[in-house]
Amino acid sequence: MSDTRFFQLLKERIGLDADSIGEALIARAVRQCANRFANGDLDVYWQHLQGSAEELQALIEAVVVPETWFFRYPESFAALAQLAVRRGLELAGARPLRVLSLPCSSGEEPYSIAMALLDAGLAETAFQIDALDVSPVVLERAAHGRYGRNSFRGNDLAFRDRYFTAEGQDYRLDERVRRRVRLRQGNLLAPGLLAGEQPYDYLFCRNLLIYFDRATQDRAVQVLLRLVRDDGVLFIGPAEASLLSSQGLRPLGVAQSFAFLRKAPQAPERPAPVAKPWGPQVRHTHAPRPQPVRQAIERPAPRPSPVVTGAADELAEIARLANQGRSEEARQHCERYLAAHGPAAQAYYWLGLLADAEGNAEQAQAFYRKALYLQPDHQESLLHLAALLAARGDEEGARRLQERAARGVKRDA
């Protein structure tokens, strides 16, 4: 589809850069919506879009396909819990902690935040979470609080026993978690977003900025900075770390948390502890009063990895370890994989992502380029390398990589 007006409309309304996900994917969504409403007539469908907020929202939801699960990037929630306990002691009940999740999709992220804070010993009244998304469909799903097995990944699912009730093949979320989250429809780029709200202590905005062009990224970051307190913390996706670093924000210093300080502290601080992956907690009948965190929490001995056989199983194990925040183990698995099987694009991609998450942009670029040498149309490497180049000011290089990624999607369409 060479009709670019739909691409431009989505960019204006939600900041979506068509190249970031591929024009073919958007064109497919447009055709599906036009077939449903106007028998495939794009001009008729376009005219209807201009006057129908509902139809525009349907198109947005056809394009934006959320991919999320509970406690994704577990180190982030461990870091949040430690920060929240300390901040709660400082506030001494003067006000509740304020947390924002945007976009919240079908609720897995804001509900994970609530479970992490409850497990850290915070009382229900000690915090409030706002969760925003552009899609009323996913917000309705979040409000329903019922989740299938795909929302529960990894080996440590003890939280499911504490906070969910089995209902057939699904699981129903406990009401005490649901009532700590206020679900609202909102667009990050809408003028005056949350203008009447006080700034937040902690803000989660993960894996959204990589889908914007550089100008929209800069605009979005300014909105995020407006929404978070001067002494607050931003949690972002692993591929977005370079972007925030280029904006002058300083990493929190907790490995694999992908967290950035809104402003650097005025006085030097002790290094932040390494947060442990989110694991089993003691369920409290009555939440105890949080105690000061006086030293780093010891990381428990990692569980033995399952025995894997075959290249596909080994790559799946690398992905599992990386998604659980076990970066050193994932890196070792990548190196063993390369030694056993020889150069492989997917293994180099994971090494690049691990380096990217640790803020080592030069090393990440080198690994992404190795992946692309072996597989020139490797989508994830193209997009992540494009994000790194854009963050360093190489707009032309980023644009070329995005175009290559889009061409790959078109071939698959």
UniProtKB/TrEMBL annotation:
This protein's record includes keyword Flavoprotein: no
One MF annotation (Gene Ontology) recorded for this entry: S-adenosylmethionine-dependent methyltransferase activity
RNA-binding keyword on record: no
InterPro entries: Bact_Chemotaxis_MeTrfase, CheR_C, CheR_MeTrfase, SAM-dependent_MTases_sf, TPR-like_helical_dom_sf, TPR_rpt
Signal peptide: none
Domain CheR-type methyltransferase: 1-241
Alphabetical GO biological process terms: methylation
UniProt cross-references to SMART domains, sorted A to Z: MeTrc
Region listing for Disordered, in residue ranges: 269-308
Keywords: Methyltransferase, S-adenosyl-L-methionine, TPR repeat, Transferase
Each TPR repeat, start to end: 345-378
PANTHER family the UniProt entry points to: CHEMOTAXIS PROTEIN METHYLTRANSFERASE
Protein name (Swiss-Prot/TrEMBL): Methylase of chemotaxis methyl-accepting protein
Species of origin: Pseudomonas knackmussii (strain DSM 6978 / CCUG 54928 / LMG 23759 / B13)
